[in-house]
């Protein structure tokens, strides 16, 4: 509380001096507040390829998980939180919200493929 009071006194004194002596000092105080967000990293999950795409998502925003990767001889099945498909699954174009509650966390989703017979 004392720090806030001291800051207000300094700001008022500064304003008084600036106005009284007409100094051209910038008096603006910039306060920046950003929304919490997380990063989704889409992994193509194709052997010997390091092909990923990243998307920044603001917390509480709803988005649709879409696949833009192609794999010859395979069709896209789903997204999964584990490379081998044993984690949490999400279908293509599924609406999601808040895959994590940790600010600036990274969630990796792996493409799961089905071989065309």
Structural account:
It is a single chain. The protein has one helix at about 1-20; strands at about 35-45, 50-60, 60-65, 75-80, 90, 95, 105-115. It is of the alpha+beta class and about 120 residues long. The protein has a domain at about 35-115: Immunoglobulin-like (Sandwich). A hairpin with an 8-residue loop joins strand 1 (about 35-45) and strand 2 (about 50-60). The longest helix is centred in the N-terminal third of the chain and has 19 residues, at about 1-20.
What are its keywords?
117 residues; alpha+beta; Immunoglobulin-like; 5-stranded mixed sheet; two-stranded antiparallel sheet; 35% strand; elongated
Assign a percent range to the helix content: 10-25%
CATH class bucket of the domain at 37-115: Mainly Beta
Q: Helix-strand pattern, N to C? A: HEEEEEEE
Mean pLDDT score, rounded?
84
CATH H level of the domain at 37-115: which superfamily? Answer: Listeria-Bacteroides repeat domain
Q: Order of strands across the biggest sheet?
A: 2-1-7-4-5
CATH architecture of the domain at 37-115: Sandwich
What integer value in Å does the Rg equal? Answer: 25 Å
Fold topology:
Layout: H1 2-20, E1 37-43, E2 52-58, E3 62-65, E4 74-80, E5 89-90, E6 94-97, E7 106-115
């Amino acid at each position: 509380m004392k720090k806030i009071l001291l800051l207000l006194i300094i700001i008022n004194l500064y304003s008084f001096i600036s106005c009284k002596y007409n100094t051209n000092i910038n008096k603006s105080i910039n306060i920046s507040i950003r929304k919490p967000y997380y990063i989704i990293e889409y992994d193509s999950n194709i052997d010997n390829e390091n092909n990923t795409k990243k998307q920044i998502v603001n917390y509480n925003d709803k988005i649709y998980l879409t696949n833009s990767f192609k794999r010859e001889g395979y069709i896209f099945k789903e997204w999964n939180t584990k490379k081998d498909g044993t984690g949490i699954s999400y279908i293509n174009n599924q609406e999601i919200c808040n895959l994590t509650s940790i600010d600036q966390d990274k969630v990796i989703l792996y493409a799961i493929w089905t071989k065309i017979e």
